[in-house]
């Protein structure tokens, strides 16, 4: 995503980030479904060959060490703001939860009831699928150009209105998701007899100001002299 190529990707590759998270979440959900099917088969066939008596200490030591390592990785990944790295943090958190519950289920299954292990696996798989499904839905919004929050739109409007004293009106303000950032579109109204150079300088400086915001990837500033036209673009079906 950081390797830019203005000829092949003229507006950048920010959408690679939610797309990568979508692929990762889809794989995790598929694995959860496979665990449910295998655990259900074990329950119905009543196959219970799990036994920890011979290697109890080794199993517990390995699981505890793995859980501690995953917890430290989770804390480390949460220090970053990059969404992909934070997705890794979420995955490590799931591993901590599943390792703890899985170890408890395995011990209980080995000592008391054999069906606790596959039943616990089904519960964990359902939890994993639900959580990653929410992650998928969240990142889908980043790909379908969903509008920004009203507070963020008000922030852009405030910046535009106070940008220059010659701005008479603000016709349109839009901001919508483009990957992990926003695209912004604003229409400002200037005097009809304003020289082109002056109007250009006002629009360009406003564009630079908007693009300096960390949430905005690109900004488009349209200059107009009246507000009687329809501001919307033509929508193609």
From TrEMBL:
It is a multi-pass membrane protein. Keywords: Ion transport, Membrane, Transmembrane, Transmembrane helix, Transport. The chain crosses the membrane at residues 21-44, 56-76, 96-116. Residues 2-144 form the Cation efflux protein transmembrane domain. InterPro entries: Cation_efflux_CTD, Cation_efflux_CTD_sf, Cation_efflux_TM, Cation_efflux_TMD_sf, CDF_Transporter. GO terms for cellular component: endomembrane system; membrane. The keyword tRNA processing does not apply. It is found in: Endomembrane system. GO terms for molecular function: monoatomic cation transmembrane transporter activity. Gene3D superfamilies: Cation efflux protein transmembrane domain, Cation efflux protein, cytoplasmic domain. It comes from the Eukaryota. Belongs to the cation diffusion facilitator (CDF) transporter (TC 2.A.4) family. SLC30A subfamily. This is Cation efflux protein cytoplasmic domain-containing protein. It comes from Physcomitrium patens (Spreading-leaved earth moss). The lineage of its organism: Eukaryota, Viridiplantae, Streptophyta, Embryophyta, Bryophyta. The gene is LOC112295001.
């Amino acid at each position: 995503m950081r390797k830019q190529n203005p000829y092949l990707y003229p507006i950048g590759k920010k959408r690679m980030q939610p797309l990568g998270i979508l692929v990762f979440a889809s794989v995790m959900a598929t694995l959860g479904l496979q665990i449910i099917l295998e655990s259900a088969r074990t329950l119905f066939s009543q196959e219970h060959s799990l036994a920890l008596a011979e290697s109890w200490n080794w199993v517990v030591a390995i699981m505890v060490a793995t859980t501690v390592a995953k917890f430290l990785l989770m804390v480390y990944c949460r220090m970053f703001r990059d969404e992909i790295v934070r997705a890794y943090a979420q995955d490590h958190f799931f591993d901590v939860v599943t390792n703890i519950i899985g170890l408890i289920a395995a011990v209980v299954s080995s000592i008391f009831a054999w069906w606790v292990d596959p039943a616990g696996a089904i519960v964990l798989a359902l939890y994993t699928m639900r959580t990653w499904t929410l992650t998928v839905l969240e990142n889908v919004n980043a790909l379908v150009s969903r509008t920004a929050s009203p507070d963020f739109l008000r922030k852009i409007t405030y910046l535009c209105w106070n940008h220059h004293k010659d701005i008479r009106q603000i016709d349109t303000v839009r901001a919508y998701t483009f990957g992990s950032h926003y695209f912004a579109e604003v229409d400002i109204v200037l005097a009809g007899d304003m020289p082109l150079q002056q109007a250009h300088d006002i629009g360009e400086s406003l564009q630079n100001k908007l693009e300096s915001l960390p949430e905005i990837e690109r900004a488009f500033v349209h200059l107009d002299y009246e507000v009687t036209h329809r501001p919307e673009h033509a929508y193609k079906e």
